[in-house]
Design brief:
Largest sheet: 5 strands, antiparallel
Radius of gyration: 18 Å
Number of helices: 0
Number of strands: 11
Helix content: under 10%
Shape: elongated
Length: 143
């Protein structure tokens, strides 16, 4: 799935079936800005050992000055927590590991990509800027 933005930017979004993997290739005209070999995306895990996975595109808005993606995700409870035991050993979230990922209700992630130009020393470069906006009523994150 390719999206055209101003400054002759072309973005491809990587996904398999219903799972969004991230930003794939990006080009400004005939100049490749990034390879799609390893999609660029976030890894969200909170201090309680809850991680988000299986992101799904809910809405894509494309305009010349912005590409905006709205995503939902599943949650998986397992793994290392940020808290330490008094023996200075990590704590683990030991919920039922036989459970598959569950829908992360009331949790959304928005990715906004905008084209940008910078002139440095008389040379103009074309590129892009991106920002994630995370909202969840149930899964707090702090970094």
């Amino acid at each position: 799935m390719e999206h055209q933005l101003a400054n002759d930017l072309v973005f491809s979004l990587a996904q398999t079936d219903d799972t969004f993997l991230g930003i794939g290739t990006v080009a400004a005209g005939n100049v490749a800005l990034r390879s799609g070999r390893c999609p660029m995306f976030v890894d969200i895990r909170n201090p309680y050992g809850v991680s988000l996975c299986n992101y799904a595109l809910q809405d894509v808005h494309t305009a010349p000055d912005e590409l905006r993606l709205n995503l939902t995700a599943d949650r998986m409870e397992s793994g290392i927590m940020e808290w330490l035991l008094h023996e200075i050993r990590p704590r683990y979230n030991t919920t039922d590991w036989t459970q598959p990922p569950q829908p992360a209700t009331n949790t959304t992630l928005e990715l906004a990509v905008t084209p940008l130009s910078r002139t440095i020393g008389g040379h103009t470069a074309q590129g892009f800027s991106y920002q994630y906006t995370y909202h969840s009523d149930d899964i707090p994150v702090y970094k």
